[in-house]
Amino acid sequence: MAVPIFQMMTVGLLPSSMKKAFYRLKGAKIGRDVSIGLLSVIKSDRIEIGDGTKIGPLSFINSRTVVLGKRVRINMMVAIDTLELHVRDDSTIMEQVVIGGMLTRRSSLRVGKRVKIFPYCFINPTEPIEIEDDVGVGGASYIFTHGSWQSVIDGFPVSFGPVIIKKGVWLPWRVFILPKVTIGEYATIGAGSVINKDIPPRSLAAGVPAKVLKQGNEYIREYSQDQKDEIVRNILLEFTKHQTFLGNRAEHKIDGSRFEIHLHRGDRDLRIIYCREIRAAAPCDALISLSRMSEETIQDLVRNDKIWFDLEGKISSFHRDPLWSEIRDFLSRYGIRFDVQS
């Protein structure tokens, strides 16, 4: 992997505003509220960066094409060296992740929405790697698209091939994925596993090499609306306690089917309402609905500039109020993520 030392010690020392101006002069398309940290650089023929994306300090991207969506986070000390890099909205590459290795004409990494790649991972996109929406790649995991060292003409195995990780997959820490593997939607892999063959969707697999332990309803539970309602109320109760832990005054109130949180922070009094079903905007700062909202309800909420979350539809509207990101991030602790309607 070639580290662009000269660029890091020249362009990398510029403040973020001047760095963005420099890249724009070279044809880059960079949205609003983008920041590029100290000693961080992008070396690319084509750069597109969406609104609200942040690149931390001491990181570099060396790629012919770099396309980063909205609100992408690339944290500090990340090294990326591949032919094509595409990262979609609300995805995060955390600290000290290395993406690189032997380059070929097919080298590429495509990351979907709301993906999180945790620290210390090594990802080798010699062949294409596709990571679909809502995937979690646990720390110190390794994804390889080629395996070769000993001579193939002397009979030793050599393997080259893409890796596809489908929507909703969870890889806990220290998972090793070998070439020519597809992991099916919503599969979960046990920590420390080695994946050397395809894993079916909605299954639990673990071991060295990994074997399927459970599948379908044997592994994933189905809840009634009453059970889902109780789960969400307990999560919001934890959110209330967490706000108290942070030093804010917070209390909850139950009014029939309505669960309310009153949050007092500095000179702001905030009100969060959760219901099984929300039909229109209400006098509050944030609304959370268990049931899918109608298009008319969503338009009403947008017109009234409300923070809202549709749990069944898994959608929300972007809001600049920090309360929006606080609620979104807390719900994500429980695997509840949203397609953000910008």
The dominant shape is: globular
How many helices does DSSP assign? 5
List how many beta strands DSSP finds.
35
Strand order within the widest sheet? 1-4-7-10-13-16-21-24
Indicate the low-confidence ranges by residue numbers.
none
What structural class should be given to the helix and strand makeup?
A: alpha/beta
**How big is the Rg?**
22 Å
For the largest beta-sheet, the strand count, sense and barrel status come to: 8 strands, parallel
Q: Please estimate the helix content.
A: 10-25%
Overall pLDDT, averaged?
A: 95
Task: Please state roughly what percent of the residues sit in beta strands, choosing from under 5%, 5-15%, 15-25%, 25-35%, 35-45% or over 45%.
Answer: 25-35%
Our measurement of the CA-to-CA distance between the termini, rounded to an integer number of angstroms, reads 36 Å
Could you explain how this protein is built, in words?
- This protein is globular.
- The protein is built from five helices and 35 strands.
- It is an alpha/beta fold and 342 residues long.
- The strands form six sheets. It has an eight-stranded parallel beta sheet, with helices on one face. It has an eight-stranded parallel beta sheet with strand order 3-6-9-12-15-18-23-26, with no helix packed on it.
- Strand 34, helix 5 (322-332) and strand 35 (339-341) form a beta-alpha-beta unit.
List the helices and strands and how they pair.
Elements: H1 5-9, H2 16-25, E1 29-30, E2 35-36, E3 41-43, E4 46-49, E5 54-55, E6 60-62, E7 65-68, E8 73-74, E9 79-81, E10 84-87, E11 92-93, E12 98-99, E13 108-111, E14 116-117, E15 122-124, E16 129-131, E17 136-137, E18 142-144, E19 146-147, E20 159-160, E21 163-165, E22 170-171, E23 176-177, E24 181-183, E25 188-189, E26 194-195, E27 203-207, E28 210-215, H3 225-245, E29 249-255, E30 258-265, E31 268-275, E32 286-289, H4 295-303, E33 307-310, E34 315-317, H5 322-332, E35 339-341
Parallel strand pairs: 1-4, 2-5, 3-6, 4-7, 5-8, 6-9, 7-10, 8-11, 9-12, 10-13, 11-14, 12-15, 13-16, 14-17, 15-18, 16-21, 17-22, 18-23, 21-24, 23-26, 25-27, 31-32, 32-33, 34-35
Antiparallel strand pairs: 19-20, 27-28, 29-30, 30-31, 33-34
